[in-house]
Specification:
The complex is a heterodimer of chains A (260) and B (327). Chain A is an alpha/beta fold and 260 residues long. Chain A is built from six helices and 13 strands. Chain A has two domains: 211 residues, HUPs (Rossmann fold), CATH 3.40.50; 31 residues. Chain A is 27% helix and 28% strand. In chain A, strands 9-8-7-10-6-1-4-5-11 form a nine-stranded mixed β-sheet, with helices on both faces. In chain A, strand 4, helix 2 and strand 5 form a beta-alpha-beta unit. The longest helix of chain A has 16 residues. The N and C termini of chain A lie far apart (53 Å). Helix content of chain B is 28%, strand content 28%. Chain B contains nine helices and 18 strands. At the A-B interface, helix 1, helix 3, helix 4, strand 7 and strand 8 of A face helix 3, helix 4, strand 7, strand 9 and strand 10 of B. The structure holds flavin-adenine dinucleotide and adenosine monophosphate. Flavin-adenine dinucleotide binds next to helix 6, helix 7 and helix 9 of chain B.
Chain lengths: 260, 327
């Protein structure tokens, strides 16, 4: 199976967020960008599918600025992805999701792709838009909120679950398609040192972003706000559990006004 | 020029979902009541589409086909894009759900729309729209300007109130089913297993959530969390330590790789407050932590804390809540 995984470099979860000087975006100075969250799980899922289906290839694709985009591609190669393509965007903030999808679509359309995997949403913008927009551009269906993805070779069907507001849905679908994974569990593997060293020398195909963006709707960030820091819990003093319970119910009722 | 706003409906238990009604109310406030048109696709959408009338929407489009039940937003997007074009709409609005996001994503391409999801506030600024939306797991909020002739927006659940139910009629117009590529019908939804969650609300719908962590120690002790949640009329959540241990299924997990929730009240019991957990619940309005370790990081983000043994505190709290609520 020809598998493409789309990954986006996002700030490490431990990053202390700050607003950039112009007030409109995240200050990316000194921020460490990593392969993380759903994308890390998507890479793991791709590698599991490859291992279960000999002859498969995993091609990792990312659209973004240097140097972070190259870094997550190398990290993916170190984990065992076979090929990498970088859609090189100008330095600075990440493209908005629809622009990212347009940039990715050109790169993905140019390589073999039966199954395209994305994360459910990126850990920074949390849009959950790229997979659907990419699928529309590629002219294939997409399935979101997917768990437990398997390939049934005998039936030539993907089998998977979707976790939606209706409950846990069981699905089967033919290729080609785009799948947005909501996989929380598959304990992603970690790269071994020799693989990391080797990944530094592996080729990464570079493609320019789309030359002329068609006349289209776009979004422009104008403000990036951080909530006032939480000051720490007001601790409830008590001698018995019953006293703790009474005091807590009282503050929830009278101060916080959240008691049902 | 301001064209109409199309609100795409979704069904929940055979009626318009709360998320849809929230979208109607936002549409009415940005576009004016008379400029809102409903849309509903399904095997028999006419009955439930009457719900638009009770929200004050006078006109709705319906796409009727047995294959349209339980399809992904991707399929409906094609119908919505044609409907939006023929109406001359400027804005398509949907509630906050998986279906809504999928639909909106497609409209970004198919309808050349500026797209935003998870939106907590939508306002008109001159000829376009401005949205606010939480990002980074609720650790920050961004404002974006939507530029271009079309906007497609999915709201965040519960960010706005549904309009009051009032008697009202909606005129229904059928729309044709063309434009959906044949390959889109090839997937099959084989079954839906409604996640059993007792009588309580679902995690993403709940205004009160009680979550348990590794401190609960064993699957059978989790009933302490269930009982506290039930006494408060809330939903039950869990940390990843709990779902990894198999004490509760993955659908209970709150956090970076689980569900993102922002209830009025979040009670964290026996949860240390790892950053990946915080990413799922930090935007809750009031956070209460119950933990035996006074240095647990959860106390840094909580509003109220009880440093104590959950096995003593939680049963006492459940009793006290029941008493206070006259149960
Ligand atoms: C990529 C990645 C993604 C992740 N995603 C998530 C996610 O989505 N959600 C998530 O939750 N985690 C996630 N994690 C895991 C996260 O890092 C923590 O390991 C996890 O949240 C810890 O769960 P916990 O707080 O229940 O357990 P612990 O950290 O072990 O904390 C247990 C707490 O219980 C307290 N306790 C023990 N006994 C008692 C008692 N008798 N009474 C009261 N308190 C008691 C202890 O003091 C302690 O603070 C992720 C990790 C990674 C690396
Ligand atoms: N710039 C990008 N390059 C590659 N993949 C991306 C990019 N942006 C988003 N994705 C993929 O799309 C998913 C959803 O992103 P988003 O729609 O931004 O929430 C991510 O988890 C990635 O798999």
């Amino acid at each position: 199976m020809e598998i493409v995984v789309c990954v986006k470099p996002v700030p490490d979860a431990e990053t202390r967020l700050r607003t950039a000087a112009d007030g409109s975006t995240l200050d990316i100075e000194a921020v460490k960008f990593v392969l993380t969250g759903y994308d890390e799980s998507a890479v793991e899922q791709a590698l599991l599918l490859k291992e279960a289906n000999p002859g498969s290839k995993v091609h990792v694709v990312s659209a973004g600025p240097p140097p972070r985009t190259e870094e997550v591609l190398r990290a993916s190669l170190a984990l065992g992805c076979d090929l990498a393509t970088w859609v090189e965007m100008p330095p600075g903030v990440a493209p908005d999701p629809v622009s990212a999808a347009r940039a990715l679509a050109r790169a993905v359309a140019a390589v073999p792709h039966e199954l395209v995997l994305c994360g459910k949403n990126a850990g920074d913008d949390e849009a959950g838009v790229v997979a659907g927009a990419l699928a529309e551009l590629l002219g294939v269906p997409d399935y979101s909120a997917v768990l437990d993805l398997r390939w049934d070779a005998a039936a030539s069907r993907l089998r998977f679950q979707r976790s939606t507001e209706a409950g846990v849905e069981k699905w089967e679908a033919p290729l080609p398609c785009v799948v947005a994974l909501q996989q929380a569990w598959n304990d992603p593997r970690t790269a071994k040192l020799p693989a990391i060293l080797k990944s530094r020398r592996l080729p990464i195909a570079k493609v320019p972003p789309e030359a002329a963006i068609p006349a289209t709707g776009t979004t422009r960030p104008t403000k990036f706000e951080l909530p006032p820091p939480r000051t720490g819990a007001k601790l409830i003093e008590f001698k018995t559990p019953e006293e703790a319970a009474q005091k807590l119910v009282k503050v929830l009722k009278e101060d916080a006004k959240v008691f049902p | 020029m301001t064209g109409p706003t199309l609100v795409v409906g979704e069904l929940h238990d055979g009626a318009l979902s709360d998320a849809t009604k929230e979208a109607v109310s936002v549409a009415q406030s940005v576009s004016g009541k008379e400029n809102v048109v409903g849309f509903l696709a399904g095997s028999s959408p006419r009955g439930p589409a009457a719900g638009f009338g009770r929200c004050g929407v006078a006109r709705a489009l319906v796409a009727e086909d047995p294959r349209l039940d339980g399809v992904a937003g991707a399929v409906v997007a094609h119908l919505v894009a044609s409907a939006a074009d023929s109406l001359g709409a400027e804005l398509v609005l949907v509630g906050g759900s998986t279906f809504g996001r999928d639909l909106i994503a497609r409209l970004g391409i198919r309808w050349n729309a500026a797209v935003a999801t998870g939106v907590t506030s939508l306002t008109r600024t001159g000829a376009s729209f401005e949205v606010r939306r939480p990002v980074f797991g609720g650790r920050a909020t961004e404002t974006r300007q939507l530029e271009g002739a079309h906007a497609a927006v999915a709201l965040r659940p519960h960010a706005s109130a549904a309009p009051p139910d009032s008697p009202g009629e909606v005129a229904l117009t059928p729309v044709p089913l063309d434009g959906v590529p044949a390959s889109f019908w090839a997937a099959k939804r084989l079954s839906v297993e409604v996640v059993s969650r007792g009588a309580g609300p679902s995690l993403t719908d709940a205004s009160i959530i009680v979550s348990g962590g590794r401190g609960v120690r064993a699957a059978e002790n989790f009933r302490l969390i269930d009982e506290l949640a039930a006494s408060l009329g809330g939903a039950v959540g869990a940390s990843r330590a709990v779902t990894d241990a198999g004490w509760r299924p993955e659908s209970y997990q709150v956090g970076q790789t689980g569900k993102q929730v922002s209830p009025q009240l979040y009670v964290a019991v026996g949860i240390s407050g790892a950053v990946q957990h915080l990413m799922g619940m930090i935007s809750s309005r009031v956070i209460v932590a119950i933990n035996s370790d006074s240095t647990a990081p959860i106390f840094k983000v909580a509003d109220y804390g009880i440093v104590g043994d959950l096995f003593q505190v939680v049963p006492a709290l459940t009793q006290e809540v029941k008493r206070a609520r006259g149960q």
